[in-house]
Amino acid sequence: MVKFFHTAFCCLLLLALAPANLALCATDSSTAASADPITIVCMKDNEPLSFVSKTGEPVGLMIDLWRLWGEKVGRPVRFIMGDWQDSLDALHSGRADIHFSMYITPDRARWAKFGPAISPGMGGLLLSTSAGQRITDPSQLGDATIVVLEGSLQEDYMREHFPRVQLMVVRNGAEMFMSVANGLADGISSNFPSAYGTIDRLGLNSFFMPQAFPLFSRNLHPAVLRNRDDLARLMDEGLSRISRAEMVALEERWVRNPAHRVWGDMPRSLLLTPAEREWLASHQTLRVALEDDWHPIEFMDSEGTYNGIGMNLMQVVGRYLNVAIQPVSSNVLKETTGPRRADVEPFLEGTPPEGGPWLFTNPFLQLPLAVATLDSERLVTSPGDLAGKSVAVHDHAGLAGYLRAQLPRSKIVEVSSLIEGLSAVQGGQIDAMVGIALSVEYAVVNKNLRDLRVGLLPQLQYSARVAVRSDWPQLVEIMNKTLDNIPHEQMAAIMKRWANLRIERAMNWMLVLQIGGVAAVFLGSLLAVILIWNRKLAQESAERQKALEAARASASPMAAQTAIAQHCG
């Protein structure tokens, strides 16, 4: 059984917590000079999420996220930085328009209105190294002294669940961590994993146990005052325009430990416009065209039920949109007269002409390609090895055109099915067959094509896009938002399910031994999906960082210095 690579994601921590004098530092985004700036309050000692640099500038992951938000809504933003309690006071008093992120509590809900979840948060208990030797579980805390930030949810939680504990309430993070280092407390209750970053920055790792005890997990939300409906709508609109890829790129820049990154797998609220919701309300069923025999991408199983990656993907989309998914045979697409009988196709066969009957979503997945050749032929390890060869392809929405561009010295031959192409390779009419790795490998194994060998071509990849009927342009943007909302882990789970080889016959152990190499290629194709995905996000991260640096460089240094002097002086 092929084991899939699973990325470990811990809960990031967003709000680090508590109070002290509000240090007012402001910067302006350069988007719409004529519009009034929106003031966003963030924590000043919450590295790497939000903190004040040595030059007095607000910096961090959340700072960049809210700068990006300003670009999306076309409004300049400025930041005021302070300790936790002061950040709450700044919003409550109207000195700030938006609070960058907080937990929802009954008390806060009386005066604040919250936006969509912006990050998962974990409240935890981290003991000193000495206390950790005698306390192995939170139930053993007794009357231990634990430091919390004033006004934080951790303070309320510890009072309610551990009434015997002696709480030391402080106003800022540095004081909290130093209390343990100075031997005044047995531990801290804070947000994790961001607290680890502060401990690293202060050089206090030797004073703390390596792992915190989890106490609670809740989502963190941005907030505005309850009477600011206009701002709440703008907040939601801007956050809905920030794609998951953009969030992941920012997180890669600021969160160095991959285990502490969470935005790739965080469930996001699907924020549709009123017009999109109205359209969706009148289209409660989506007819999905699927192929009958393209394992494991799209196929009809032995019970007559459509299954595979395409069907599973659309089922997830249906749950997000709360619409029914009705599978239909892709044969209906061949009927060019009469009313349409299919609304979407996850892996459309053939490349429609420009302005044809289909529109397409943004690419939502990069799938590696594989090549099948006769086992007696030279092993193909790169696209260059196919120069001068005839290469069969079962075209799917641009795949044939992509291969013609990537393999200019090869003769691309379109075939009607994967099996037809593999049979042509076996018969010597075609030199090689290139297709989506998962389907090529599956066919070679399950059709017992022992005279063929499969090689992965990670340099080549298919950009999967969902085809949408051209008279439904509204659905394209709805689908883009939905596909972007699917967590990477959920998408990976779909791939994992169908990457495990299923031998559709009585077990033949000799055959199993013979296909061991193909199974190894299977694992390679799965890892390639993740590597391609990560490489794509890394490229976006680099492009995003260049854009951010260019934006900063375009701002007037003198104006920035003046703003800082006015607000920090």
UniProtKB/TrEMBL annotation:
Pfam families with a match to the protein in the record: SBP_bac_3
Keyword Transmembrane helix: yes
Class of the enzyme per the UniProt entry, highest EC level: transferase
Record-listed E.C. numbers: 2.7.13.3
Record-linked PANTHER family: AMINO-ACID-BINDING PROTEIN YXEM-RELATED, MEMBRANE-BOUND LYTIC MUREIN TRANSGLYCOSYLASE F
Keywords on record: Membrane, Signal, Transferase, Transmembrane, Transmembrane helix
Coiled-coil annotated residue ranges, if any: none
GO molecular function, one term: protein histidine kinase activity
Gene3D superfamilies per UniProt: Periplasmic binding protein-like II (3.40.190.10)
Domain Solute-binding protein family 3/N-terminal residue range list: 37-258, 285-502
Name this protein carries in UniProt: Sensor protein EvgS
Record's keyword annotation contains Acetylation: no
